[in-house]
Amino acid sequence: MTELKTFRITNQRGLEVDLLNFGARLIGLRYQGVDVVLGYDTIEQYLTDTFSVGATVGRYANRIGLGHLEIDGNTYGLNINEGLHHLHGGSAGLSHLCWTGEQLDDRTVVFSHHSPHGHMGYPGNVEIQILYRLEKEDRLLIDMRGVSDRKTILNLTHHSYFNLHGVNKAGDASAASHEQVLMINAKERLEVDADGIPTGSWVSVEKTPFDFREEKPINSAPNCDHNYCLDTQGALSFAAELSSKKSGLKMSVWTTLPGLQFYGGHYLKAPFKACSGICLEPQFFPDSPNHEAFNTPWVSPEHPYHEVIEFRFSA
């Protein structure tokens, strides 16, 4: 296995980020002296992580029903790792692999990985690059790129658990994560079945606990694990905003992606506590290859993958 390596980037304005090449992960994020993401006590614990803590998730983030993938009449069976379905790229997805990491300067780290044809059932040799860079005005840019030697799918996302109240290194929240205040720029979410697989329909969030078009405490929908259909147009656009009255910190999420998975962290277990952090994961819709109405992230030599996630912090 490639040697485990950590990296640190800082903007000298009170924003500091620690990164790990295993899973191209973010393992620490401090703003104004407050640690705002869950993390393990030791680097070795990430090797057995089952919660995707801070990881780059893929090849396909979220779920693909029954692991079924069809491309131009050819059927591919993906690794089944959640009940009857495929989740987050499989049992040995990108979050479970060592990447090559390089620190370009004190504000920039880039991770790269070659995913071979057939890995976890996916067709195509894919070259993937994840760039973390601290921009001006306390912004963390995550630039995600990929290219394949044949037609395939690629849907990457970032999977940190945020708690702007502040967390200890061991993952204990200093205040309940669901006391954070959230706003999501979406009037609809995907309808899903009991396994979290989309039915193919959009449903309005109006007059439901899942309506976050105006900011409100997360505890109104504490066990949320839904994909929101963002009111964006493909350019870098505002997706969500998270804030803490306790710390006075605020984080807005901007992205080029069409969906946002809001997961309340209710499945977290030791060494963490349930709901001690939440995930805001920009991505293409889950199970999109099996729904004609969904925008599917097809990738080929002629059509490389390039998407952006940006977290903007303020106090």
From TrEMBL:
Active site, UniProt feature: H159 (proton donor), E281 (proton acceptor)
Coiled coil: none
EC number: 5.1.3.-
GO molecular function annotations of the record: aldose 1-epimerase activity; carbohydrate binding
Pathway listed: Carbohydrate metabolism; hexose metabolism
Residues that bind beta-D-galactose: N62, R63, H159, S160, Y161, D231
Transmembrane segments: none
Isomerase is among the record's keywords: yes
Single GO biological process annotation from the record: glucose metabolic process
Database matches in InterPro entries: Aldose_1-epimerase (IPR015443), Aldose_1/G6P_1-epimerase (IPR008183), Gal_mutarotase_sf_dom (IPR011013), Galactose_mutarotase-like (IPR047215), GH-type_carb-bd (IPR014718)
Top EC category: isomerase
Entry's Gene Ontology cellular component terms: cytoplasm
Alphabetized UniProt keyword annotations: Carbohydrate metabolism, Isomerase
NCBIfam families per UniProt: PRK11055.1
Family the entry assigns: Belongs to the aldose epimerase family.
Name listed for the protein in its UniProt record: Aldose epimerase family protein
Organism: Temperatibacter marinus
